[in-house]
Amino acid sequence: MPINIIVCAKQVMDPETPVSAFKVDREAKRVVPATGIPPVVNGFDENAVEAALRLKEKAGGGKITILSLGKSFVNDVIKKPLAMGGDELVLLQEDAFEGLDAFTTVQALVAAIKKIGQYDLILCGRQASDYDQAHVPHGIGEMLGLPVISMAANLEVKDGAIHVERKLPDGYEVLEAPMPAVVSVSNELTPVRLPNLRGIMAASRKQPTVWKAADVGLEASALRSGLELLDLFIPVSEKVCEFIDGENDEDKGRKLALRLREAKLI
Amino acid sequence: MAQGILAIGELNEDSSLASVTGEVLAVARKLAGATGAQVSLVLLGKNASQRTKEAIALGADKVWVSEAEVLHENQIEAHLAALAQVCKAADPQVIVAGKSLFGRDLAPRLAFRLRVPLMQDCIDVNTDPATKRVVAVRPVYGGNANARVASPVDPQFVCVRPKIFEALPPNPSRRGEVVQAPVSVDASVVKVKRVRRVKEEATGVKLEDARVVVSVGRGIGGPENLPPFQDLAKALGAALGASRPVCDAGWLDHSFQVGLTGKTIAPEIYLTWAISGASQHLAGCSAAKNIVAVNRDPNANIFKEAKYGVVGDWKKVLPSFTATVKELVGS
Ligand SMILES: Cc1cc2nc3c(=O)[nH]c(=O)nc-3n(C[C@H](O)[C@H](O)[C@H](O)COP(=O)(O)OP(=O)(O)OC[C@H]3O[C@@H](n4cnc5c(N)ncnc54)[C@H](O)[C@@H]3O)c2cc1C
């Protein structure tokens, strides 16, 4: 049975941006992208794309639609899920999407998902590495009235239901939900394939479908974040590190142990 | 008109009060202190009514309980349906939940079900003295920045990061009221079913509860270098932890991962070896009382959070450190 999957994927600032290059414009209440470091597809969303590809391969067919919302996109970046093997890319693009919070992002994604129409599964990454809210998948499920399973380490379709393995602190569990369902995917679902040359060529020939807010029945000027952002700032640590010195590294190791003993820590 | 604060409690599998319950009550009391609001707690599940005394001692003025059978397992759809009903009856101005394993799925869904925005994963929560509204601080960009947020609509819904707020010391003489929660949940709301639950016997000290944690990063080079760290952990009676690349590479299982997307821990001593201290890692260990860092890069970010540091090659620091520890601990 072919399977139709929508994967929500977000373009984000590279989360591996060194701490020293991380800047905030406090006035504008936004993060200033570091120069020379291109954005990336949110890492967990790549895990979700990988999950979709495996399910489609197993099913022997179907369609994977990548859905991304944002103000602007870097073509080579946002096409990566296509290069990995995704079939179609839908970009929900509008200036007003800049800085929109999860509450309103969900409304827009849901409107687009309804327009896409046919799906057995909606996959998301477990969280986005910029706002780290981990609630877009939950919101999509609630707004569409679908079951939600988070943090998938593995997925399998069995008798028309989705089976999801999730890690627990003391083991794991397998949950089952009827389809359609929303599943968020975790980094335990690895390895994530790298795009091969054929995939990259195929992706470069594909044109994304671009929808504006109005195309999914939303009024751009009415889009507001649910939460008020009062301030955005880089936290300062007041901690001062006591460096243990010594003649050489061996000596430092010994002295560290003695210092910890002195401080009654060991 | 909406009023009061509703905290969402949680029961463990054995019906004991989950630690996050004390934490959300402490947050609720802190917010109530500024406005004099009543603090209610909702407690759903098997033997919930046996935990009400404890909840009142921890700060609840009122406890809504339900022991309906459908709520016995922490099945999310059943709890969501019940909580939505309690929220309707209680009509709170503020809801406080905790981002526990259960809460991290529950809180966002409840917020969307109530059609209000959620202040997720908060590490500080206050009342604005002028507006009397909740102002919360939440880390964003993996902890590289903090956002201060407020919700313009009631109920203002906050979900707090676990192990950041301390439960209040129990006061057995506190008084409170216990009421039956007006819950009627049909079993048909349950769509997600558990097929299997496998417990893996943890060997050694549990990472979440350990007083001492020895944690290793990508800089240890490979799984072949783990034994001396395991040896040190054993000598200290410590649990072993790791950064994400160590787990992603399969040197250790993901259950060892500390951080934003791993475990949140608060040990007395957190001994890191060849971990750079990315904000996403620190997010899981910033509540540690003493961070000790060994790293060969003097500018490594970990030193900004560490109390004690050694700039050096772990391969040379570790043997003498372990040997000295063994002498000290043995004596
Ligand atoms: C959304 C998101 C979530 C994440 N969640 C987590 C999480 O939960 N937990 C987590 O840990 N990370 C997480 N990360 C990854 C995080 O950003 C960092 O990439 C990661 O923490 C780095 O791990 P590390 O310090 O081991 O490796 P590196 O950053 O590569 O650091 C290795 C360190 O080892 C030192 N070193 C190398 N050789 C030696 C030697 N011989 N002696 C002494 N020191 C040496 C180096 O100086 C360096 O500082 C997340 C990232 C994202 C985007």
| Beta strand % of chain B | 15-25%
State the name of the first-level CATH class of the largest domain in chain A: Alpha Beta
Q: Judging from the principal axes of the Cα atoms, what is the shape of chain B?
A: elongated
Strand residues, percent of chain A: 25-35%
Major sheet strand order of chain B: 5-9-4-1-2-3-10
Low-confidence stretches of chain B: none
- What is the mean pLDDT of chain A? 95
Following the backbone from N to C, one meets helices and strands of chain A in this order, namely EEEEEHEHHEHEHEEEEHEEEH
Q: How many beta-strand elements of chain B?
A: 16
Sheet having the most strands of chain A:
9 strands, mixed
- Please give the CATH architecture of the largest domain in chain B: 3-Layer(aba) Sandwich
What is the assigned CATH homologous superfamily of the largest domain in chain B?
A: HUPs
Q: From N to C, what is the helix and strand string of chain B?
A: EHEHEHEHEEEEEEEEHEHEHEHEH
Strand order of the largest sheet of chain A: 11-10-9-12-8-1-6-7-13
Q: Report the total helices of chain A.
A: 7
> Looking at this structure, what is the CATH superfamily of the largest domain in chain A?
HUPs
Quickly give the structural class of chain B.
alpha/beta
Helix content of chain A: 25-40%
Give the integer mean of the pLDDT values of chain B.
95
Give the termini distance of chain A in whole angstroms. 60 Å
